[in-house]
Design a protein that fits this description.
The structure is a homodimer.
Chain A lengths: L20 H8 L3 E5 L2 E4 L1 H20 L3 E2 L5 E3 H5 L13 E4 L5 E4 L4 H8 L11 E10 L14 E11 L2 H22 L5 E6 L9 E7 L5 E6 L4 E4 L5 H7 L7 E15 L1 H5 L3 E3 L5 E3 L1 E8 H12 L16 E5 L4 H16 L4 E4 L6 H11 L3 E5 L1 H5 L3 E5 L5 E4 L1 H10 L1
Parallel strand pairs in A: 3-7, 9-12, 17-18, 17-19
Antiparallel strand pairs in A: 1-2, 4-6, 5-6, 7-8, 8-16, 9-10, 10-13, 11-12, 11-13, 13-16, 14-15, 19-20, 20-21
Helix pairs in contact in A: 1-8, 2-5, 2-8
Amino acid sequence: MKRTELFTKTSKTTPAGEVAKNAQLLIRAGYIHKEMAGVYAYLPLGLRVLENIKQIVREEMNAIGGQELSMTVLQPRDVWEKTNRFDDAVVDNWFKTKLKDGTELGVGLTHEEPVVDALIPYVSSYKDLPLSVYQIGPKFRNELRAKSGILRGREFVMKDMYSFARNQAEHDELYEKTAAAYTKIYDRLGIGAETYRTAADGGYFTERFSDEYQTLSDVGEDTIYVDKAKKLAINKEIYTDENLVKLGLNRQDLVEEKSVEVGNIFPLESKYSDALDLYYTDERGQRQSIIMGCYGIGVSRIMGAIVEKFADEQGIVWPVAIAPFKICLINVGTDENVVKFTINLYKKLQEKGVEVLWDDRVDVRPGEKFADADLMGIPHRVVVSAKTLAQNSVEYKARTSEETLILTIDELLKKIACI
Amino acid sequence: MKRTELFTKTSKTTPAGEVAKNAQLLIRAGYIHKEMAGVYAYLPLGLRVLENIKQIVREEMNAIGGQELSMTVLQPRDVWEKTNRFDDAVVDNWFKTKLKDGTELGVGLTHEEPVVDALIPYVSSYKDLPLSVYQIGPKFRNELRAKSGILRGREFVMKDMYSFARNQAEHDELYEKTAAAYTKIYDRLGIGAETYRTAADGGYFTERFSDEYQTLSDVGEDTIYVDKAKKLAINKEIYTDENLVKLGLNRQDLVEEKSVEVGNIFPLESKYSDALDLYYTDERGQRQSIIMGCYGIGVSRIMGAIVEKFADEQGIVWPVAIAPFKICLINVGTDENVVKFTINLYKKLQEKGVEVLWDDRVDVRPGEKFADADLMGIPHRVVVSAKTLAQNSVEYKARTSEETLILTIDELLKKIACI
C-alpha cells in the first residue's frame, strides 16, 4: 500500500485523557480511534493487526477440529435464566437493552448459554460427540471504569471456543489438545517465550484448576509465580502449599512476576449442559451428562498487551507475524532513478506476497518518514537513495536494531524470508 | 471437509414459527440458528456463505480505493446529538443501553456520525481528500416486528462505505465509481442479470435521487418499474411523469416487478460533515464543506434474498461463488475400491483448491445423501460407485439440472473450472 492512499496520519501529541501506553501509542500512530472510555474503533492499520491475530488463532483452532460459527450480540433472557446468569445481582457487568414491546435483552458478554442452546437440535447421541465450536467476535462488559486502553475494554474482540465431551477422560484430552494449540498461538504471535500456562482458580462449581495464559509485562494486573524451567506458573490468588503440591511445583524454583492474562481455559464440568438440558444417549441407551470446557483468547487485548510489552522510546514494536506491514519502503528524495528503483522494488515485493507500505509522500523529510516507521512499529525499514543506488543496493534496518546494512535486492529478499 | 466433521444435520421438519422461506430452508439445512425473531446465529455452513459474500464485497470496495476499518457497536450520544439523531422521537428504531453511571448509549444502527467524527484528526486540507472508508459488521435495528428471516433482521451484517469529496463533481465521480463496483458485486454474486439500479427518493435533505439496487423476487416488498434494455428502474414511490423525464425513462418501456432491495447508495450533500464540523481548507486557504455519499450493502440480507430467489422444491440453490462448498462428493457403499477412489479424488480436489464436502457418513443411504446435498444447495454433486468405478469415472450432476453425466476425473476438473 502507498502511504498516500492511507488516510491516517501520525501525531507527536499524547492524546488527552489516555493513561494507558497502548492506547496512547495506538492513537498517535493512527491504529485506533477512541469512541469513549473502553470503546475503540479500529482504523485501517489497527484492523490489519487485529485480522492478523484473528487469522493465527483461527488456523490453530481449525487445526484441532474447531468448527467456526458466529453467535449474536442480542441475547434473549430465557436461556440465561436457566443458569441464573441474567440477573444483574448475579452477573454485574451486563449491558442490557429492550425490544419495542419492553422485553429485556442482554448484549452478549459471553456465549456459553446460547452455544449450548444452539447445539440442542444437533447433539443427542454418543455418535454426535466429541465436538468443539468457536467464534471470533465482539464481547461487551459494562465495566465501572475503563482506563487500560484496549487491554480491558467495554467492547472488545474475543475468540471463545466451547468443547463438548462424553466423559471426563475425553474432556481432558480435548482440554490438553487446546492447551497445546494455545502454546502454538502464543509462539506464532511472538510472545511464546514469556507466556506461561498458569494454574488459577477453577471457579465455584469445580475443584479443578483453570489455566490462565499469562505473559510477563510491567503493566500486568496479575502477580504470578513462575517456574521457568518447567514453563509453568501459579497465580498468586491460589499460591498455597497445598496447591503447589498438587501442581508439582516447589517454592524455591518460583520467581514472582507481573503479567497480563492473554487467554484462559476452563473446565466447566456439566454445569451449562445440564442446566440447558443438553444430554446424550450412550451406547447402552442411557442418558448421560456432557462435559464442557471453554477456551478464551482476548484478540484485541493481545494487541494491547503486545504494544505494552515491546514498545520503546520510538514507539510501537510489532512482532513480524502480526505487523500491519512487514516492510516500510522509503525513497529519499525525488530523483527520477531513485523513484523508478523504488517503484520496481515495491512491485517486486508485492509480487512476492510481502506486505509493504511505501511511504511515497513527496512533501515529507526522510527523518520524519523514519520516525513514522518507528512509531508505527513496522518490523523492517528499507531505504532507497542516490547513495544506495550507486551500489545497486538498499539500506536495511530492523525496527529492533540500531545497525543499518547495505543489501542487494536478493540479499534483502533472503533476509526478509528468514525473519 | 468431511461431513462427519460437521456438527450440523439437516431436518425435514419446517421449523415452528418461521413464515419466511429463507429462514425455513436455512434452519432445515443447518445454516443458521434462531435466537429470537430477527436475530440469527450463523452456524459453520452459514458463516462460510456470509464470509464468501463479504469477501466479494471487500475486494470490490478495495479495488476502488475503499479503506477498511471497523467502527464500534456501542455509541456515545454526543456525536448523534449534533445531527439530532439520538432522540427516539426522531430515529425510532434504536436499541439503547446504559453505562453503570446511567449514561445512555446507542447500539450501532448506522455509522455516519461516528465515521465523520473519526476523520476529524485526519482531514483538514484539500490534500487529504477525496477518500472513502468502509466497514463490514453488525448493525442493530429495533424493528417492531421481524418475520422475514434474515431478509430484515433486528441484528444483521452490513457493508457501509462513506465517501468524502471536495466538491460536487468529485463526489459524482466517486458515486458513479461505486455504482460501477456495485454492478460488479451483483454479477459476481450471481444475481447481476436481474438486479437493477433503481432511482428512489433521496431523502429529505437533497433533491437528488438515491439509487437502490433491486433484485427481482416474488417475495419482494418493493414494487419497481424496469426498463430491461437500459438496465434501469424506478421505484413506485417516485413513479411520476416529472421523474421519468429527469431519468430519461418512458412509461411504455417499463415493466412492473416485485423486488428485494440488496443495496443502496445515497448522496448526503454536506449534512453530516457540516453538522460534525468536518471541513477542509482549499488551495486558497478558504474553509469548504465536504460532500459525502454513503453506500450500503446488506450482506446477510443478500444471503436471504438469494435463498428466496433461487430455491426450488428440493431446497436451497447457491450461486457457485458464494456456496459453502462447490462440490458435494458422495461414495455409494463402502466397497474398499470405491472408498479408496473417493479418498483420492477428495484429496485431489482439495489440492486444486476446490472446496469440497465429502459425505463420508457410513450409516446413511445414498438417496438421503443426495437429498441433503440438494437441500444444502451445493452446486455440483459427484458420485463414486462400483458402477462408475468400472468406467474409471464419476457421476456428475449440477444442482440446477436433472441431467447426470459420466465423467473422467480430468473431464470433471475441466467442467468445474469452467462454471
